[in-house]
Amino acid sequence: MPGNMAQDLTEKELLKMELDQLKKEVKNERQMVSKTGKELKEYIESMAAEDPLLKGVPEDKNPFKEKGGCIIS
């Protein structure tokens, strides 16, 4: 039975992987939560009218609607 990938790597290999990941993350542009939070809220509010979780799905367009009933005799 194959082992966990992390168990198969040496400590040096794990540290190198972590370092590589941190190098990638440090390049990401950071933004203030106060700015991105406001933008996210505006986006959510602008899309609310089209959100099926908020407005529901019409019965005739619901792909999960049961096709027929169950008859027990």
UniProtKB/TrEMBL annotation:
Q: Where in the cell is it found?
A: Cell membrane
User: Ranges for the G protein gamma domain?
Assistant: 5-73
Q: Which GO terms describe its biological process?
A: G protein-coupled receptor signaling pathway
Gene Ontology terms, MF aspect: G-protein beta-subunit binding; GTPase activity
Topological type in the membrane: Lipid-anchor
Might you report a single GO cellular component term? heterotrimeric G-protein complex
Against InterPro entries, the record matches this protein to: G-protein_gamma, G-protein_gamma-like_dom, GGL_sf
Locate the compositionally biased regions of type Basic and acidic residues: 57-73
Q: What is its main location?
A: membrane
Top-rank taxon: Eukaryota
The answer to whether the entry has keyword Flavoprotein is no
Disordered as annotated region, ranges: 54-73
Which Pfam families would you find in this protein's record? G-gamma
- Coiled coil segments of this chain: 5-39
Q: How does it assemble?
A: G proteins are composed of 3 units; alpha, beta and gamma.
Question: What's this chain's function?
Answer: Guanine nucleotide-binding proteins (G proteins) are involved as a modulator or transducer in various transmembrane signaling systems. The beta and gamma chains are required for the GTPase activity, for replacement of GDP by GTP, and for G protein-effector interaction.
Concerning its family, UniProt says: Belongs to the G protein gamma family.
Can you say what this protein is called? Guanine nucleotide-binding protein subunit gamma
What species does this protein belong to? Chelonoidis abingdonii (Abingdon island giant tortoise)
